[in-house]
Amino acid sequence: MKVTIKSYHPVAYWKWDTSTEPHKLYHYASPDGDGMDDDDEDEDVCGICQNAYEGTCPECRVPGDDCPLIWGECTHIFHMHCLLKWIDTESSKQQCPMDRRPWVTADRKPDKLPTTTDRAPVATVAPGPLPTEEERRQEDASHEEERRRDMEMERSGEADVGEADSMEVDGN
């Protein structure tokens, strides 16, 4: 019997790994799991917008990498856009909306993430701490200074020391 496939419609399903197991939240979850055995049904929703983690925050249209989740040291998880909007409000006082502790983004270490039987990573690393406004300004200023120096070098015709060493010359 011969079968001919006329059309193929693949369907994929993904889910954020929001577990609070100690080996997944490096240093921040207590080793004995105290306070993490909540069996509430609200664990799969953002504490700010109340949308499912697999869905999107109110500002996004498509779930995935453009609408990532962000973990706090307090082990609470939110859509990144929801948390950024919350932190920007004056009333937030830079605190977690769930327990009012000062907000500190948890660092999910790649060597502590779960792996498959062939040791391949199951998840990607969650975003680390967001830079402060001052750090962003300093970084922008240093990039601008670097661009300005590059433009001056191009105008003057000078080259960096060692730049000519890496150039290849055609033997013809």
How does this model look, in words?
Residues 57-100 form the RING-type domain. InterPro entries: RING-box_E3_Ubiquitin_Ligase (IPR051031), RING-H2_APC11 (IPR024991), Znf_RING (IPR001841), Znf_RING/FYVE/PHD (IPR013083). Keywords: Cell cycle, Cell division, Metal-binding, Mitosis, Ubl conjugation pathway, Zinc, Zinc-finger. The protein has 172 residues and is mainly alpha-helical. It folds into 2 domains: 12-127, Herpes Virus-1 (2-Layer Sandwich), CATH 3.30.40; 128-158. Helices cover 19% and strands 3% of the residues. The chain has 2 helices and 2 strands; from the N terminus they run ββαα. The chain has helices spanning 80-88, 133-156, and strands at 69-71, 77-79. It has a two-stranded antiparallel sheet. The relative contact order is 0.10. The model is unreliable at 25-31 and 33-42 (pLDDT under 50).
Briefly say what this structure is.
One of its GO terms (molecular function) is ubiquitin protein ligase activity. The protein is mostly helical.
